[in-house]
Amino acid sequence: MQRLVWMIWSLWLMMLPAALQAEPDGAFRAREGVLDLSGWTAAQPLALAGEWRFAWQQLSDGIGSDDWPLFVMPSTWDQSGQAGYQYPGQGYATFVLDIQGLDPAINWALFIPEITSSFRLLANGRELIHGGNVTAALELVQPYQGNRWVSLGRISEGRIKLVLQVANYHHHSAGPWQSLLLGSEYQITRSYAHHVIYEAVILLLLALIGLLLLLEYLVDRKDRTGLWLGLFTLMLGVRLGTTSFAPLYWMLDISPSWILHIRVIYISMLLSPVLLFTWLHSAFSGDFSRRLRNLCSLPFLLAALTCLLLPPLWFTALLGVFGGLLLLVVVVAMAVLLRAVYLGRRGAWVILPGMVLLGVAVIHDVLLINQLLVGQFWSPLGFLIFIVSMICNFLLNRVWARQEIVRLSEQLLQVNRELEQRVAERTQALAEKANALQDANQQLQVLADVDGLTGLLNRRALLQQLQQLKQWQGSVAVLWIDLDHFKRINDGFGHAAGDAVLAAFGALLRRLGRDRDRLARLGGEEFAVLLLDCGAEGAETFARRLQQQLRELQVPDWPQIHNLSASTGIAIGRLGETDGEELLNAADQAMYEVKHSTRDGYKIAADYRR
């Protein structure tokens, strides 16, 4: 068993550097504000590192930048030597790079890692993307968070001039401290999706492990090792889920303010060592006393309190100090585990390799944040490997405990039977809770996407479908349908009759629609239909059939309600060329024109007739 675990650790140690190292191509670095990519095969995305043109306290479109000083990217402008001398962290600046030799047959794209603390990117004088609000006025600058990407399309002349405007008044350091990446749109989007899924999977694994450990503690509260391990795992999940691609935000569909975002990042970073020290004391109390735990935890608790009370401009200046404290955590944890291994403590040899890998990842990322290295963050994988090693230790201790019970079973047979029954009951309870949680999550997902009355998609789910069908090549038709005089039905027959009409109309839409079409209730008596591979003629045919069958529609239990009608607006377009919400709004406007004229009819939006 011990040899097998060491073989697995050794294999991970061999694979880790090859999997995570990502350095810029030295043959293609910007020199004197120009990046010549003639001869570049574009096999992988390229880091736009090297000498950019730089203008301090200017938000320029890049005109006349040939005479500007040079700035070595990536770096923050408060690092001495990058642009001749060190600038203050608060202010604004413009960076310019002239890229030449691009293949005009390739659809290009850019990956923009998070820039402190707001940016605006222009290409050949046209704005491509922005994060936050970039302006010279302190009170108007708005920071942002998260990585971004943007499509450049095909560059017919093979040359593009990038202008990066950056403003910062909220963070101690400012500027593009990570390299922008240039590559084909396929490469950038694939890499972006890969990293998002990669971090999301690790986050889900950490959350699942943490919750299971907490459940285990709730079942048996005699041993608090699982409690502290579970809380430490969840805290690492919060840290991972709010940095880089921030998978926690989009999974929970939230967008916190930048100040709350930066506080969560720093506080989760500083509270994780406190929980780690508490777990070490619980697992190896003989080697890590309560007094030593409190002494090591105190600086991190004070630092977390500082991040909670002080403005970000102050506590972000202490990032170097916090990095030093994290390195101290690695040293202390390594010393405790080495002592435990030396003294032959059970399971310590399982955790030690994970602690080594986590230490390497933390040291690497501290150097990366302080701009002493260039590359990708190693912490996500380091967190997961370390947690896995701790879980292995936790489980091995459980296995060894069971073996002792089996060894004593001949003397305490009756006691052993009772213990097995208790274990079986607890295992069943955990399985039932896990299944209930899964069923609840599935039900919540259905409730989030489906209208409960009609069984059609709701508005949010329809908008998601429009976004997911961006790559659909064929023509589409969007119909916005509003039932005429619906208020009279509610007022004359009651809301139960109105609900019956809506349910019957939803069933009618399902009968008329094809399997590939999207049907949704937008709210009240308003509905929407997305017809794929459909032009104006097909949309009109659908609208006429709908009018005819709506007049003949029979509402169950309400025979006195008949001869219904609807006003329909239609917009025709292609989702790859026109934003789905624009088509929906155009159909809505066309519907209102029908509603305010004749009712009981349809109209195609003039600007969306194809």
Outline:
By secondary structure, the chain is α+β, with helices and mostly antiparallel strands.
Percent of residues in beta strands: 15-25%
Mean pLDDT: 83
Shape: flat
Total DSSP E strands: 16
CATH topology of the largest domain: Rhopdopsin 7-helix transmembrane proteins
Cα(first) to Cα(last) distance is 68 Å
How many structural domains does the protein architecture include? 4
SS field, number of helical segments: 16
Could you name the CATH class of the largest domain?
Mainly Alpha
The CATH architecture classification of the largest domain is: Up-down Bundle
Q: What helical percentage do the residues reach?
A: 40-55%
Using the CA coordinates, give the radius of gyration: 30 Å
Q: How would you sum up the major sheet?
A: 7 strands, mixed
By helix and strand content, what is the structural category? alpha+beta
Weakly predicted, low-confidence segments: 1-25
Task: Write a concise keyword list for the protein shown above.
4 domains, disordered N terminus, 50% helix, 16 helices, 610 residues, flat, Jelly Rolls, Rhopdopsin 7-helix transmembrane proteins, 5-stranded mixed sheet, alpha+beta, 7-stranded mixed sheet
